[in-house]
Design a protein that fits this description.
Four Helix Bundle (Hemerythrin (Met), subunit A); Arc Repressor Mutant, subunit A
Length: about 240
């Protein structure tokens, strides 16, 4: 059980994608910039050109780069100027709908899984959830570590439901789930108080599951995901008013 819930090591092309996105969001790659050649990227990351091409292909599909035959690969202009609105690559590319759809799915799936986990979780399941919670607590300013802990926390609860169909579903949507959590964490975790509040939400969910309080676990998970949706909705409404 424990082995199944560990996050897989990132593939070579995913490392390239993450680095380019991070450079874009941090302003190290301004809109219109030309990226290094495939050969240069392969050398920089010590990976094959095939992996580089796969990364560029996915970035082109997502709308971040433009590949011009004979000229090279260029970073597309960012249509959103407000730096706060750049909290997610998905949002930069007008994929807000996907985020809300994933939140709707998570609300249906994870609320039920929290309910079932409180009834079915084994000692090992609870240890896995607690490990994720402690990793979240100790992630400090490490964004990726905090993200992995958050993703693992929710996946481990699905695992603890001992419903193989639920587990297969969440595993098949792992990448989209991670993107959604990454986006919402960047919006929510703006100061130490919000970090503490978010951690406490997860802690209370864990305690309800660990003590076998099914109804409370269900209520807390629904409240957690509903709160995220509420904050996202408010953010976009404010964004629209300021545009």
């Amino acid at each position: 059980m424990k082995k199944d819930m560990q996050l897989p090591r990132k593939k070579a092309y995913e490392v390239v994608i993450d680095q380019i996105k991070e450079s874009f969001l941090n302003g190290k790659l301004p809109p219109g910039d030309k990226l290094p050649t495939e050969r240069e990227l392969a050398s920089l990351f010590n990976i094959s050109r095939t992996s580089v091409r796969e990364a560029l292909r996915k970035l082109e599909i997502e709308g971040l780069i433009e590949i011009r035959q004979g000229s090279g690969t260029f970073l597309k202009a960012n249509p959103i100027q407000d730096t706060k609105s750049d909290f997610s690559f998905s949002i930069v590319n007008n994929k807000k709908k996907l985020i809300f759809e994933m939140l709707e799915l998570r609300r249906v799936l994870e609320v039920e899984c929290a309910f079932l986990a409180s009834q079915r979780a084994t000692t090992d399941d609870l240890e896995q959830i607690l490990d994720s919670l402690e990793l979240m607590r100790n992630s400090n300013d490490d964004v990726e570590l905090g993200l992995q802990a958050d993703v693992n926390f929710h996946k481990n609860i699905v695992c603890a439901s001992h419903n193989s169909i639920f587990l297969q579903l969440i595993q098949s949507l792992s990448e989209r789930m991670e993107d959604t959590i990454r986006a919402t964490r960047k919006l929510r975790l703006t100061d130490s108080e919000s970090v503490e509040d978010t951690f406490d939400e997860h802690k209370q969910i864990y305690l309800a599951i660990a003590t076998g309080d099914s109804l409370l676990a269900k209520q807390l998970m629904e409240k957690h995901i509903s709160q995220i949706r509420k904050e996202m909705t408010e953010f976009f409404l404010e964004q629209n008013r300021n545009s």
